């Protein structure tokens, strides 16, 4: 028994595999099809299939009373999506994502610039660690600790009062739209937390892009009489722009889809991620949740198209 | 070539979707006898409703049941009524502790089956005020066994209110509180569409000309009046609560001093030595009365019936009332319970039964030829109010 088995595994498979490889070598198309089918099936069925399922769900509707999905194609769900309250949710989320992205880019650029051009190897390693360190702890823990930091009885409020700046904080919280009773229940506090949690995703791609700018270009620019400001605007920025866009795709899409931060902080006004969760998980309104999910997909498509027009992907 | 592959993928995806369309519903007739246990039982419940001594070993009404019947209990907690309905629609569960704003939806959606009360031997001990309650009895058929009930109380900070607030006014209109500061940004409201009924209840006393008789059956004009009140409330609400523990945190760390709440949070805050008390103001209060209901396609009906009987045993009822701050559906549960104490039922509102308007699902056809605003409009409009519309 053992003998025959081993004879087989040693003998014929070697011949078989050789014949097989010869056969495939002569037919490159077949080889390609065999190699590509499994990943394409995965991409097509699991990845695109689930997207298609989502899209189809969004054309179903919900029986308002029993809460059961009516599986008949209709545009009613999209009509529900376009009510003013839902447009508010979409608008609120998009504006927040845009503001967070711009702020993160402005904060990240100097840090990345220092890391890429000036920091000594040791300092650089330390800075890398400092940027990445928060990502090693749970995102939930960080968000909830921010809730405590920003609370009315929290440490930030306490320090501000100690410094005699409570009037400034009160003025800030009194601003219409972004203010609130305390930082943790205002859009302002939410914005601070978003910038905090997504900043590393902006710093790393910008830093990588800055590292690729050859020193000689900057020297050449200086030799040709450009002032530092001109060098920055005409040489560095265009070369680093793809990195900024890469980072912005992270921060923008992550903010668009997030539901944990608005759950713990802010003034209870819904964001897209929460609306999806509420309609899908809580109200059982899967069609509306699906329609809501289509929104960030569309926004991201527009965003990427705009980035492409600006030449962000030319270097790819 | 590429195009054809794309089309094929989409077609394949569509084909996999379509067969799942028809869902089998319903089951013929109710059970006539209880057989041997199936060894398992899954329950959808409010947090804290089915305890096995994991949080506090004194509160355990599962372990003994499992030992006695051999039915291994698994619990899926849900945070809102809508979530319970969604889970029941998904299926795969045996029982649900549904409140009145979910129970009728489950009945008309045929997600639950009629319960044979003859098989639940302790049925006669159930509080007579609950036995034929409309949230589980439809056309004389019982679709569940009452579990617990309780009021949505007004929770307040005793450092700010030296005497209990007499009206829900303190959370609905901007005013100066007894400590000399405005209530703006210091009150909360419940983050569920059913809260529209709280506004309607308030209007019953304060604006009788709107003519609200039942806060769950509002015509267009009454509904709009309630929404207007809620929009006004939005300006003073610090945050809408949906997570009991976040509300507890907000009362400790965020300077919140008054809110609609459950006795559960009141007990929790008092156990943390916080200056907190609760009251039912003059307008009355909304409340919940929960029913354990049996899924139409339950796979463990024998274990489920054994649990239904167990669920109304006085010991369980008293322990649960002490734990959750609710009132037993079986009055015998109030007596001789060490955890609840002699005054427990009184504290949790046993005598307030008539002051409470119990959660039920708002429907379009609300009787008497009136046309009312249905529940899904409560949902969309309440989301809009919270968003500042």
From TrEMBL, chain A:
Transmembrane segment boundaries: 29-56, 89-113, 125-144, 183-204, 235-254, 260-279, 286-306
Membrane topology reported for the UniProt record: Multi-pass membrane protein
Superkingdom of origin: Bacteria
This protein's record includes keyword Transport: yes
GO cellular component: plasma membrane
Entry keyword annotation includes Transmembrane: yes
Protein name: ABC transporter permease
Compartment annotation: Cell membrane
Residues in ABC transmembrane type-1 domain copies: 90-307
One GO process term, biological-process aspect: transmembrane transport
Species name: Candidatus Segetimicrobium genomatis
Alphabetic keyword roster: Cell membrane, Membrane, Transmembrane, Transmembrane helix, Transport
UniProt similarity note: Belongs to the binding-protein-dependent transport system permease family. CysTW subfamily.
InterPro entries linked: MetI-like, MetI-like_sf
From TrEMBL, chain B:
GO terms, biological process: polyamine transport
Signal sequence, start to end: 1-21
SUPFAM superfamilies referenced in this protein's UniProt entry, alphabetically: Periplasmic binding protein-like II
Subcellular location: Periplasm
Gene3D superfamilies from the UniProt entry: Periplasmic binding protein-like II (3.40.190.10)
MF annotations from Gene Ontology: polyamine binding
The entry's keywords: Periplasm, Signal, Transport
Pfam families in the cross-refs: SBP_bac_8
Lineage: superkingdom: Bacteria
GO cellular component, as recorded: periplasmic space
Name recorded for this polypeptide: ABC transporter substrate-binding protein
């Amino acid at each position: 028994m053992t003998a025959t088995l081993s004879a087989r595994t040693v003998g014929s498979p070697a011949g078989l595999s050789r014949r097989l490889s010869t056969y495939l070598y002569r037919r490159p198309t077949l080889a390609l099809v065999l190699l590509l089918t499994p990943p394409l099936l995965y991409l097509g069925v699991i990845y695109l299939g689930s997207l298609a399922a989502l899209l189809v769900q969004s054309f179903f509707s919900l029986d308002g009373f029993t809460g059961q999905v009516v599986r008949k194609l209709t545009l009613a769900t999209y009509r529900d999506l376009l009510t003013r309250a839902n447009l508010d949710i979409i608008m609120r989320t998009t504006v927040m994502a845009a503001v967070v992205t711009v702020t993160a880019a402005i904060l990240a650029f100097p840090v990345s610039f220092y890391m890429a051009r000036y920091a000594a190897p040791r300092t650089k390693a330390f800075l890398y660690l400092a940027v990445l360190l928060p990502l090693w702890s749970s995102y939930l823990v960080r968000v909830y600790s921010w809730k405590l930091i920003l609370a009315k009885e929290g440490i930030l409020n306490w320090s501000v009062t100690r410094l005699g700046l409570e009037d400034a904080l009160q003025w800030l919280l009194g601003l219409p739209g972004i203010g609130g009773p305390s930082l943790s229940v205002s859009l302002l506090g939410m914005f601070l937390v978003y910038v905090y949690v997504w900043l590393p995703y902006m710093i790393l791609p910008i830093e990588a892009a800055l590292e690729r700018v050859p020193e000689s270009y900057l020297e050449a620019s200086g030799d040709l009489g450009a002032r530092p400001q001109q060098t920055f605007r005409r040489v560095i920025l265009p070369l680093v722009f793809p990195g900024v866009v890469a980072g912005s795709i992270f921060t923008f899409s992550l903010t668009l889809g997030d539901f944990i931060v608005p759950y713990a902080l802010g003034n209870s006004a819904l964001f897209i991620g929460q609306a999806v969760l509420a309609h899908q998980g809580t109200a059982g309104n899967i069609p509306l949740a699906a329609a809501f999910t289509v929104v960030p997909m569309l926004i991201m498509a527009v965003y990427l198209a705009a980035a492409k027009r600006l030449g962000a992907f030319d270097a790819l | 070539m590429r195009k054809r592959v794309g089309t094929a993928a989409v077609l394949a995806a569509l084909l996999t979707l379509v067969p799942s369309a028809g869902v089998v519903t319903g089951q013929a007739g109710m059970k006539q006898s209880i057989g041997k246990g199936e060894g398992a039982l899954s329950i959808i419940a409010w947090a804290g409703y089915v305890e096995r001594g994991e949080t506090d070993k004194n509160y355990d009404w599962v372990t003994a049941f499992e030992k006695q019947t051999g039915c291994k209990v698994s619990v899926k907690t849900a945070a809102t009524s809508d979530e319970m309905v969604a889970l029941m629609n998904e299926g795969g569960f045996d029982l649900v502790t549904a409140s009145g704003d979910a129970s009728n939806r489950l009945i008309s959606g045929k997600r639950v089956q009629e319960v044979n009360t003859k098989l639940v031997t302790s049925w006669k001990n159930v509080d007579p005020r609950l036995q034929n309650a409309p949230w589980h009895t439809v056309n004389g058929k019982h679709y569940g066994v009452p579990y617990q009930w309780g009021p949505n109380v007004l929770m307040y900070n005793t450092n700010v209110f030296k005497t209990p607030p007499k009206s829900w006014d303190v959370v609905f209109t901007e005013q100066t509180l007894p400590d000399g500061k405005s209530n703006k940004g210091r009150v909360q409201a419940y983050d569920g569409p059913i809260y529209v009924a709280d506004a309607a209840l308030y209007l019953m006393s304060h604006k009788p000309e709107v003519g609200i008789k039942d806060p769950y059956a509002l015509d267009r004009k009454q509904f709009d009046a309630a929404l207007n009140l809620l929009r006004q409330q939005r300006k003073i609400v610090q945050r809408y609560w949906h997570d009991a523990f976040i509300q507890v945190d907000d009362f400790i760390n965020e300077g919140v001093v008054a809110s609609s709440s459950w006795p559960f949070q009141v007990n929790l805050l008092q156990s943390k030595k916080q200056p907190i008390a609760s009251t039912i103001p003059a307008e009355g209060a909304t409340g919940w009365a929960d029913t354990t209901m049996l899924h139409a396609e339950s796979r463990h009906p024998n274990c489920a019936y054994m649990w239904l009987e167990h669920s109304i045993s006085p010991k369980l009822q008293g322990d649960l009332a002490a734990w959750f701050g609710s009132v037993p559906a079986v009055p015998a549960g109030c007596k001789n319970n060490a955890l609840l104490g002699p005054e427990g039922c009184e504290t949790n509102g046993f005598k307030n039964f008539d002051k409470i308007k119990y959660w039920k699902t708002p429907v379009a056809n609300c009787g008497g030829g009136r046309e009312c605003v249905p529940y899904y409009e409560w949902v969309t409009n309440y989301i809009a109010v919270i968003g500042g519309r």
